[in-house]
Amino acid sequence: MKKSLPVHRAVSIRQMPAAPGRDPLFTLKLCFAMAYFPVFNPARLPLPSGAASAQQLLADQFGGAADLTSAERQALGRVRGLLAGQPSDEAQTAQRLAAVVPGMTNAVTYRPDQNAFVGTGYTSAAGNTYFSTARLTAAIAIRTDIGIGYARVFLNAIHIYSADGQRRLLAHRDYHCCFYSEQAVMSGAIALLRDLILDSIPADQRAHAEADARLLAERIVREAYTNDQVQLLRTKTALLD
Fold first, then answer.
1. Which residue from 239, 37, 7, 20 is spatially nearest to 138, judged by alpha carbons?
2. N or C: which terminus of the chain has fewer CB atoms within 10 Å of its end residue's CB?
3. What are phi and psi of 129, to 5 degrees?
4. Who contacts 97 (Cβ-Cβ below 8 Å, separation ≥6)?
5. Which residues partner with 161 through β-bridges?
6. DSSP-assigned beta bridge partners for residue 87
7. How far is CA 148 from the centre of its chain?
8. How far apart are alpha carbons 110 and 165 in whole angstroms?
């Protein structure tokens, strides 16, 4: 005579006996969580520490790779440089820029949207943030000092330096309560350069030369906004080395 197999009756999770003070549904959810969430295991294939190991890892992985995207190649170059003890891109840019423009911070980034070098800012006890930007031409460097207040951005100063490595201050103007705009910076730089040119012309000839001086000043400032700033900085600092 065949023995009948035991019949297992389906039991609702709510019908399961619960441990004192514990919801069985909570217990089940916790089990699922432990099963699906990774748990740190210090015995899992630890990589040897040190920059040399990371360098070897990258060399083995990407040494012969020809299908890296432009962004991946740049990232690989930056990381390899840092592992080799080279300064970061920001530090390298700051070092180059310091040879041409004084007063910038020790970490500078290039902003393609502004075609300008932007230094790191600092915040005063009053909560205002201050930073500087720089743009180059073949002959000059324009440094702009900017302040960010509670509700407005202010143009604090414009400095024009020689870009021949001497870093001579050629012209300068401080501003007070002047709202910042690119148009304000351009107009201020043009006025400084126009006056710089006119001041070198005999006084009795300046009135006749004012329009010409302004035209040349506009061209110089326009080049500061349209030139490839990164390439120009590399070229100029290479000539100074």
1. 239
2. N
3. -110, 135
4. 104, 108, 117, 134, 233
5. 141, 169
6. none
7. 18
8. 20
DSSP state of 168: -
C-alpha–C-alpha distance, residues 118 and 116, integer Å: 6
Quick: pLDDT tens for 35-49. Answer: 444 444 444 445 445
Contact call for residues 150 and 127 (beta carbons, < 8 A): yes
With 0-12 / 13-18 / 19 or more C-beta atoms within 10 angstroms meaning exposed / middle / buried, residue 223 is middle
Token pair listed for 91: 């530090």
- 182 touches 158 (CB < 8 A): no
Helix or strand run (H / E) with residue 158: strand 153-162
Q: What is the residue whose two structure tokens read 């070897």? A: 56
The rounded distance, in Å, linking the Cα atoms of 87 and 108 is 12
Q: What pLDDT, in 10s, does the model give residues 152-198?
A: 999 999 999 999 889 999 999 999 999 999 999 999 999 999 999 99
Do residues 121 and 129 lie in contact, with contact meaning Cβ atoms separated by under 8 Å? Answer: yes
Residues 6+ apart with CB under 8 A from 213: 194, 197, 198, 201
